[in-house]
Write a structure and sequence with these properties.
Layout: H1 5-8, H2 23-50, H3 54-57, H4 72-79, H5 91-121, H6 127-138, H7 146-156, H8 162-186, H9 190-198, H10 203-211, H11 216-231, H12 235-240, H13 248-256, H14 265-298
Length: 301
């Protein structure tokens, strides 16, 4: 039987290979590189300036790498830079920020996770009204509520105290965190919840034994959002914390805007870098889980 090549040849399958340097790829990667350059350039300037001495900075070339690298600006920014009459650097502000950050993050995430779980799986009479009011509070500019909260904290005896600023951060973080947890728990298959109910599990049993173990990504999302928001906050800290409890951002502002003596740009840049280290470390450690949490239902609704 003669061999017919037409019967044995098959059509190529799969997507058509794309060109590595197509017009579309050039535009996409060009825009991405432009965005990277836009964000990296200020960071580069801060780093190289913080590693220079003042004589080298006075030469005026802000983009040139340091000739003689020195970490003295970092040491001074941390321990001896002046913020008005006090010359303690950022160290007191860092300690205050940690004291504010840890309880605020833990309390707000703990309460919001239970709120979101209850609103998603244990509907009660008026739950939708409650959730609507909570969301409404999230979209009210907090600048509108600054003075009423001052009066409230004064009446509670918490104004200018760590407890007062922790309470403020916990309350302001509650609406958006509750929304995140509610949407995440609502994306969990309802059959899993019903099966647990049939097996006799109650409110806390389902939450602690089923929901929590499978909710690490959304907890990381909440952790990053709260850590970034609370650590970088300036306005609430300068109003409610009191002079003895100023967070790191307020100390940074006092160092940068100090008018005494020579303007030390290297110390200012080092102080700025030190202030931003904590949110960056948290994000780089848990960045993959953050993306997973967003993709798994954090913005679904």
């Amino acid at each position: 039987m003669p061999h017919n090549p037409e019967t044995t040849m098959t059509e190529p399958r799969g997507p058509k290979p794309s060109k590595s340097f197509s017009r579309r790829n050039i535009i996409i990667y060009g825009l991405l590189l432009l965005a990277v350059f836009y964000y990296i350039l200020p960071l580069y300037v801060m780093i190289v300036t913080s590693l220079k001495g003042m004589p080298e900075i006075r030469l005026g070339n802000v983009f040139a790498p340091p000739v003689d690298i020195t970490f003295e600006p970092w040491v001074k920014a941390w321990g001896s830079a002046c913020t008005g009459l006090a010359c303690d650097g950022l160290q007191p502000g860092f300690i205050n920020s940690v004291k504010i950050l840890i309880p605020s993050v833990v309390i707000s995430i703990a309460i919001a996770s239970v709120n979101g779980y209850a609103l998603a799986n244990w509907r009660f009479k008026g739950s939708e009204v409650f959730f609507t009011i909570l969301l409404f509070g999230a979209f009210i500019p907090y600048q509108v509520m600054l003075y009423p909260i001052v009066i409230l904290l004064r009446e509670l005896g918490l104004f200018a105290s760590l407890g007062g600023i922790v309470l403020v951060h916990t309350i302001f973080g509650m609406p958006i965190l509750t929304l995140l947890f509610r949407n995440y728990f609502a994306s969990v298959p309802e059959e899993l919840f019903k099966a647990a109910r049939v097996d006799g599990a109650g409110f806390w049993g389902i939450f602690l034994k089923i929901m929590l173990p499978m909710s690490l990504p959304i907890f990381v999302v909440a952790l990053i959002l709260q850590t970034t928001g609370i650590w970088n906050d300036f306005l609430l800290g300068v109003i409610y914390a009191g002079t003895k409890n100023f967070p790191m951002t307020v100390q940074l502002n006092n160092i940068v805007n100090s008018t005494q003596g020579v303007k030390e740009y290297n110390v200012n840049m080092a102080a700025t870098m030190l202030t931003g280290i904590v949110p960056l470390v948290v994000y780089f450690i848990s960045g993959k889980l953050f993306v997973r949490g967003i993709a798994a239902g954090a913005v679904k609704g």
